[in-house]
Amino acid sequence: MLTHLSVDNFAIIEKCELEFHSGMTIITGETGAGKSIILDAIELILGARAESHLIRSGSKKCEITAIFDVTNYLYIQDWLTEKNLSAENSECFLRRTLSDDGRSRSYINNQPVPLQLLRELGSLLVNLHGQHEHQTLLNRETHRECVDAYGHHEKLVESIKKLYHQYRDTENQLKQCHTQFGNKETRSEFLEYQLKELSGLNLTAASLNQLETEHKNLAQIQNNIQNYDCLLNLLDQTILPAIYKSQNLSQPLSANISDLLENSRIQLEEASGEIKHITEDINLNPERLSDIENQLTKIYDLARKHRIKPQELFNLYDQLDQELKNLQNMDNTVELLEKKLESIKTEYFVLAKQLSEKRQKVSRKISKEIALFIQELGMQGAKFSAALIPTESEINLHGLEKIEFLVSANPGQALQPLSKVASGGELSRISLAIDLIAAQNQNLPVLIFDEVDVGIGGGTAARVGQLLKQLSEKTQVICITHLPQVAAHGKQHLHAAKKIHNKQTFSFIDYLTPEEKIHEIARMLGGMEITKQALSHARELVGTP
């Protein structure tokens, strides 16, 4: 159960420390006083979405801590152990902080955890029934979920879902095979042609690298030969003839210039000879270069054709070869898929029929219980049925039937869907009846009811209080209410009040003594002016002389 809650700088609460006890805790107060803020804080500590506007005005950070005693809940202790989050004792300590920059941090037993883990634990600790929950009853999905939760069908439902998805996946594979089978011959011929093209290359990752390296070397040699030839032609046909002519012109003019030109001629002739010697030693194989260029051209053209990189061509060959083999084995593949589909279908119907039988038993039981509850809640003569409606398609995600809640609000009326016959007040009572039944069937440390008694009063409200008190004997119940008939049954009573100080609003939560509880219930009965008659009535409700 929840034993302690600490709230700092959250909404209009500056600081609040609350100790909770077993049984039923009632929270009352004027509208806007801060009753629901306590529930908002609990929801936040259990993983609800955090927004910076929740931080009290003028503060940079809010912090909420909660302590749960999980002594009698071995499945929660096992969960904590599995996640390496267990504490030395049987307490579970949760903490969550929210900064004004929007950052939120979560902790379980003083260890930082991701928000999803906090939410997962929260679903094991608390179940909250809200005042607007009755609107979800108009959705038939809720009806099925309610019946399956009541019957503890979770494992069976999950197994059926898995089989459904396996069936659909296999069915899609079979459809693809049939589509491919129709183009089998054409596709096979095309694949064989493509494989022949690729195999003609004799290509591997190593061979492509080798070809590119060899081509680069041969191309460089060819380029060098061309440069040497160009240089040799330049020396022999242009530069040396010019030197000869310059020498002839310089001899009568200057012996020194003539000597310099002679030296230049000698060096240039040596350079020409060296070039001829080098080119004679260069070994170029033009045929090999041409062959490599042709091979690379085919490789690059084929890569462009398939819109891939050249080095990916050898992987493409394996892919196309595998596809061709699959096509050639199409008959076997189709046969295997058909057998698999039939096997899944058989297993599906075995489990689905088991679920249907369980749902039929549960629907009969829950129909009787809800009908009894709503009659106790003031709908005299009303009837209720959780009807199982066969699905139109053979295999469905949720089994062989849909479930729809039918109601007859008045004697003599036929059962009809909730959306067609139930008024807002009737929906509230039916929702409350379902909540009470669901709560009795849950093994959770804490159940919270947030004004689920809206729209009822008088003897009906008194009966709701009795039912919630009975429920609190099994598990801890926290209830926010505006009804004195419900509040009178609380073991612990908290009161929310709002005060303004220095132009700032503060919410305070106080424990009420037995006498203060009488005055609060009298206020709820008669308004702000508490009369002797209201006090007397309050004592009568509480059972205090």
Would you summarize the structure shown here?
The chain is built from 17 helices and 15 strands. The protein is α/β, with parallel strands linked by helices.
What does the model show?
A 6-stranded antiparallel β-sheet has the order 2-1-4-5-6-7, covered by helices on one side. Helix 7 crosses helix 9 (286-306), helix 11 (330-376) packs across helix 13 and helix 16 crosses helix 17 (532-542). Among the domains are: 1-131 and 451-512, 3-Layer(aba) Sandwich (Rossmann fold); 186-328, no CATH class. It contains 17 helices and 15 strands. A hairpin with a 2-residue loop joins strand 1 (2-10) and strand 2 (13-19). By secondary structure, the chain is of the alpha/beta class. The protein is 57% helix and 18% strand. It is elongated and about 150 Å long. The longest helix has 47 residues, at 330-376.
